[in-house]
Amino acid sequence: MNYKKIAVLVLLSVFIFSSQALAITAEEIIQQRDDNEFLKSARVESTMIINNAGRELEKKMVNLIEGDKALVSFTNPMDRGTKFLKREDNLWMFFPDAEDVVKLSGHMLERGMMGSDFSYKDMMESEKLTELYNFELVGEVEYKGRPCYKIEAVKVEGAEVSYYKRIAWIDKERFIGLREELYAESGKLLKVAEVTEVEEIEGRWYPIRTIMENKLRENTSTTFVIDSIEFNPEIPEGTFSLESLQ
Amino acid sequence: MFLTKLAIKNLTRHKKRTIITALVISFGIFIFLVSDSLVIGLRDISIDNNINLETAHVQVMEQEYWDEREESPLENLIKKDNNLIQEFGNNNSKVIQYTSRLNFTATINNGQEEYPITVVGIQPEKEKDIFTLDEYVFKGEMLSPGVNAMIGKSLADMMGFEVGDYVTLLFKTKEGTFNTIDAELQGVLDTPNPMINEMNVFIPLSLAQESLNIENNVSKYLFKLEDRDQSIEMAANLNNRFKEAGLSIRAYDWEQMSKEILAMMRQGNVENLVMLAIIILLATVGVINTVILSALERLEEIGMMKALGLKAREIVYLFVIESAGIGLVGSTAGIIFGGIGVYLLNSIGISVSAMTEGTTSFGMPIAGRIYGGWHPEAFIFIFFFGIIVSTLASILPARWGANKDPVKAIYHR
Amino acid sequence: MRTLVSIVAIAIAVMVVIFARGLVIGVLNSSYTLYVQYDSGHIRIIDEEYDKKEKLLSLIHPVDGFNGKGAVPMAETLEKEEGVELAIPRLRFGAMASPDDEIVRMMGWGVIPEKERQFTEIESKLVEGRMVEMGQREVVMGKGLMNSLNKKVGDKVTILYKNSFDAFKGSTFQIVGQVDHYLPLINNRLFYLPLDQAQRILIMQDSATEILLKTKSMGAAEEIEPRIESLINSTDNRNKYLVQTWGEANPLLKLFNVAEYIYNVIYILLLLLAAIVVINTMVMIVKERTQEIGMMEALGLKSREILTMFIIEGTFLGLVGSFIGAVAGGALTKYLSVVGIDYTQVMQSTIEEVFMNPVIYPVYNIENVIFGFILGTIVTALTCIIPARRAAKMEPHDALRNI
């Protein structure tokens, strides 16, 4: 027997086995977080508080989600009657003062949703993160008293995503994101999303209160608060159709 | 021939009459030339400003980019090292210099507010020979390579930027990924072009390309030629070559890019016509008067000429030649005086600063002085026009005078 | 005959002078008027922060009245001020429509229809339908805009915009009228809607983006502006309003100042030209009558008496000629001031920022007519004097020698 060969084999096997036994990969962490946070089917009542250089606005909405379809209806007085319908990559809007449905396309999607810091486009690209970014686990740190995985994600070359780099702090035990930093290609920090309140609902931990801060403009942020979630609700047939918008 | 000589003699005999009538014509011509010069002067300045700040003489870009150029998209760009263009730019003797630019939309951010602007990536060393931006650097200095930027005064004032501050530009790369540039504000421009002052941020081309992940692509090429009149031909020339080579890029001359100024010029032409009409009218009146009054004065002469056997037709001819002569004198004097006036306008100009504040508007200068422009065609035109008007205006009154009954004429005395 | 010729010469010269002035003023006025009607008014009142953000059609710096009590009441108060003929609030905002996936950008003007009627000639530009009415969900659009949207009068259109809270919204209106205006801004970009509707959809109760004031003339505006400014600043203690004259509101108008200056210079030159024509005529006539002068002297008339006679004759000629010229010039100017000279073929502008009126209306001005009349008379009288003096000083036999 060739001693060198055995040595290499042994070393190799130790290496393989040890890595398997030891670490969870970055992708897996993200996957788990997304599984947790991703709503396959839910009814969510939420509030969005928009702070634009000191001016504050509050919007309330009811969100019905099923797979890649979503129907958002606004319930606060100023926006009551306004609805969005998302189906795959298409977005339609209905305004109570308009008599027909408006389809959003092209750079209309770039606009901030209802004046917030979440753009319509951001809302659209939620699911495929693992395909669009290369993830790396850079460490385990404590964030706001919780043990977290710190994951850096840099976009895959050529990927058409808005943020070049994302750094996420994910709660090790609960697998929900507690903080995410969004960077431009130049390395400049553009936005920071911070989860300030979490809750366990039907066995899943969920971020209840998230603040998205625009780092380029003073005193500008959007706070997203979940008032109630119902997982896998009864959603009537034909909810996600254009007709239901009007 | 005899009649012509006689006509000339008559003119010299009645010098005063000749001179005063000629004066009418020459003064009218003087007014025409001076106002024409002013209009041309204004027009030239705005065109020059436009060419020297914005369009250059000829631009080359993809056809599809031309259609969308107002939006400064990142599609349909040209490769920077396009051989055909480079060869043309380097070798053609009529091209003084050429450069390329990369334009894209972004928002400029001062930490509190953001404002949508267009970023223009330029090559400062080449731009020096093409554009006059460096003459309008109001504060700071002209752009140099590095992470630097130059913005217009209106923009700087609005966002509160000073030279040395860092301006943040937020935009999306070709793939739609956010990127930022934190550039040091090197210079503030105060140009006659309000759009540049309000909407443009200049950065080095290489910085633009890097930040957009568009290595080696540019939005367009810009050429400066020896003479702006060569632009249309040059563009057509280039287009033929492009078509032959099967390329989709096209050349566009500055006129195609200067709609506003040409629209305003059209209004100037109309006023010129009105002016011309008024002058014609007054000059005609002057000439007709002269002919009638001189006919009245020379009734005996006419009578005698008829008695000597001259036909009415020949007498008419005599008068008309005399008027033509007056026209000739008037036109000559007119263009001489006009020439002096225009020369003075060109060198000294008219001061208008007393009534306006601020610098310029839409490329037209409204501070300091206005200068005239040279328009040789106007001189030639009005010279012949003056003679023609004098001649034509005299025909009817000459016929009237020539048909007076000689007997009655002499008897009238 | 001589008399006739000289009178005609004087008349034409005076007529030309009067008409030219009217024409020049008319050209300038036309352009100024357009800017006054569709841009800055004679006096403009805006929030001082709005000045910088105007290009963006910002809605966060509106005119909300005296101490926030409403733009319309503020306008009504201002209209009662002496010298203010009209106070016009406007609410301007950016909008778009999206027929067939294309984006058509537009500008909406929330207006009080009655005020617009009085201030601009917008109703005369209606080619179909009618102007909007307060309280109704209706719009009036330019011909070019309706073409881009593929709509006709009677159709409904859904307009997308951002309200004053920066929220993206849509509203449907009915198109009740179409205008055809030579200004590209109005034809291709603008739509009118009632002010209250604009306020409702933009959530800007009682506000406007600006209040324009109409005064008697451009000059009157400059006189009244300080008074308006102090009135506003003393009534509203927030000190947030900017009161601008038309020249301050629109820097482009300074260009017209230059044009005016140049025109005035040219006008003076024309006056000289006309004067020379008259002089030309008169000199020849006087020279011609040298013999007569000689005869009169021989008959015993003194130089001074001869001179006086010529002056009287000259003045008389001047009066008659100028009078005829003044009447003719005035009539021509008056006629064209109503009918206008149509340069549409030559002067179509396609640029939105530049307002040019392709029909020129010379301005009929009685002072102008009188001025022309007096000028003609004086020039004629004066031009008789010099040659007459010279002739009167000649010895009779020299003068008579010409026989």
Helix content of chain A: 10-25%
Biggest chain-to-chain interface with counts: B-C, 54 and 51 residues
Question: How many individual helices of chain A?
Answer: 4
List the domain count of chain A as a whole number.
1
Q: Could you spell the SSE succession of chain B in H and E letters? A: HHEHEHEEHEEHEEHEHEEHEHHHEEEEHH
Report the oligomer: heterotrimer
CATH fold-level topology of chain A = outer membrane lipoprotein receptor (LolB), chain A
* Overall pLDDT of chain B: 82
Shape of chain A: globular
Structural class of chain B: alpha+beta
Could you characterize what this model shows?
The complex is a heterotrimer of chains A (246), B (413) and C (403). Chain A has helices at residues 3-22, 26-37, 120-124, 129-132; strands at 41-52, 55-66, 69-74, 83-87, 90-94, 102-104, 133-143, 146-155, 165-171, 177-183, 189-201, 204-214, 220-231. With 246 residues, chain A is an alpha+beta fold. A 13-stranded antiparallel sheet of chain A has the order 6-5-4-3-2-1-13-12-11-10-9-8-7. The longest helix of chain A is centred in the first third of the chain and has 20 residues, at 3-22. Chain A is globular. Chain B contains 14 helices and 16 strands. Chain B has helices at residues 2-13, 15-55, 63-68, 83-91, 124-127, 153-159, 194-199, 205-212, 231-244, 259-297, 299-307, 312-347, 376-402, 406-412, and strands at residues 58-62, 78-79, 95-109, 114-122, 137-140, 148-152, 166-172, 178-189, 200-204, 217-218, 220-225, 249-253, 350-351, 360-361, 364-365, 369-370. In chain B, the strands form 4 sheets. A 6-stranded mixed beta barrel of chain B has the order 3-4-9-6-8-7. Chain B has a two-stranded antiparallel sheet with strand order 2-10. With 403 residues, chain C is of the alpha+beta class. Chain C has helices at 2-40, 50-53, 71-79, 113-119, 143-149, 184-189, 195-202, 218-235, 246-249, 253-288, 290-298, 303-339, 344-347, 366-393, 396-400, and strands at 43-47, 84-97, 104-111, 126-129, 138-142, 156-162, 168-179, 190-194, 210-215, 241-245, 341-342, 359-360. The two termini of chain C are 20 Å apart. The interface between B and C is large, with 54 and 51 residues.
